[in-house]
Amino acid sequence: MTGSVPEALLAALRDDAFTARATAWERAGAVPRAAIDELAALGLLGLTVDTAHRGSGTPPAAVTDVHRLVAAASPSLHSLLVVHAMVCHAVRRWASAELRDALLPELATGRMLAAFALTEQQAGADTGALTTTIERDGDTLRITGTKRWLSFGQIADAYLVFGSTAGRGSCALVDAGAGVRVAVEPVTAGLRAARLARVTFEGATAPAARAVARPGIGIPFVVTSCLTVGRLYVAAGAVGVAEAALRLAADHAATRAHGGTTLGDRQLVRGLLADAALATDAAARYVRHTAHEIEDREPSAAVTAARAKLLASRAATTATATASRLLGAAGQTEDHPLARLHAAARVHEVIEGPTEVLQDIIAADLLRGRHGTTDRAPSPAAPYREEDDHRAEH
Amino acid sequence: MAAQQTTAPRPHTPEEVTATVRQFISRLSGRPGIEDDRPLISDGVLDSVAAVQMVDFVERTFDVEIADEDLELANFDSIRGLAGLVNRRLAAS
């Protein structure tokens, strides 16, 4: 990937008008499809797709800059970027050449909005507990199951559904429409405008050619490599949120009069700002490092991405908490930008693997080889086991 | 980290490929002496993160591209399966 972020897109995202519109979306509780289409026309959804398939072929490190900008203004729109990038990744990396040629241009141009349908009521990171089935019947796939909290699931044209086929973990890209029932999830702080949906597949069908890789490959390979990319981009968004909160905090500290001086002259305040600034900068640098590892296909990238997400979401929590403390009552009103950033930071600690799951992955990597006596190494995100799928089917 | 060495010289003989894969799986799983036929993924020897690391490792180390038709679990579920896949790809290139 040697392309760059389209200039017109960068200009649009840096314009104050974008921030104003994003604020309006959050108030209204929905990013409208028309706004997505407009940004897609500037290349927002094709960043990670190669130029031969009508994307801009932008390297991951440059893509993270866009995620930072978008998340600082609209955490909800950012969640669309993340799920869409994960679906693009699945198709680009794991789908057949025919499927790539057919779908990547649709995804890159935003004609097809795609949601990432992994999470269920009782299963997310624990992919062995998924109950959705993707049955193969000749040239047709039949999908049955319910997915929860899908970002932009309300307006998606297609869903990358994870489940099991004859007891093996699989995934397929399924169009919205017949047999797919979409319900609106309750309003969720931090993702107020993300069009979250509960999507039930009631024997929905798709051509067998829409399967992405074969059963046994969809889980664990496709899902894990998607989550690696997703963790990078959530981390980038969290850095954007942390940077925005830090700006609010520093601006306020520098100007707010307090006992004949400014808030920023107080040592305790300077201590808070220093910690938040360091956490944010460290996360920003680690995110770039992670982007390069992913681009270079380093085998360590999956663990590095887990570290990046943990580090960056914590930086966002630190920075937003600092800003919240310094801004006082003014920053607590529901409509204040800080309230949105604060809620976004909480969401970033949960999506694409909550903090504890990531700690598990990081520690498992550290401990590998030090468990000399156990036959089965303790493993973080529940290794795929056939018996899990059999159990799930009953 | 257990999975970082990616600078092994490019091996050519099937035996060298198997030895390199064996060494990497041993490091990735943290267990020396895994039998060549032992199921790695379906038996939970490798977790899902390690499984993806394995694909990146073979593509980078041997400079082969894993194509769609190679994406069968059998090609990734054991040292023998993976080494066989790499050798077939090397022979075809």
Task: Please give a handful of descriptors for the protein shown.
heterodimer; A: 394 residues; alpha+beta; Butyryl-Coa Dehydrogenase, subunit A, domain 1; Butyryl-CoA Dehydrogenase, subunit A, domain 2; Butyryl-CoA Dehydrogenase, subunit A, domain 3; 3 domains; 3-stranded mixed sheet; 12 helices; 9 strands; disordered C terminus; B: 93 residues; mainly alpha; Non-ribosomal Peptide Synthetase Peptidyl Carrier Protein, Chain A; 0% strand
What's the short story on this structure?
The complex is a heterodimer of chains A (394) and B (93). Chain A has twelve helices and nine strands.
**Given the helix and strand composition of chain B, which structural class is it?**
mainly alpha
Kindly report the greatest chain-chain contact and the residue count on each side: A-B, 45 and 34 residues
Architecture (CATH level 2) name of the largest domain in chain A: Up-down Bundle
Which structural class should the secondary elements of chain A be placed in? alpha+beta
For this structure, what is the CATH class of chain B? Answer: Mainly Alpha
The end-to-end distance of chain A, rounded to whole angstroms, is 45 Å
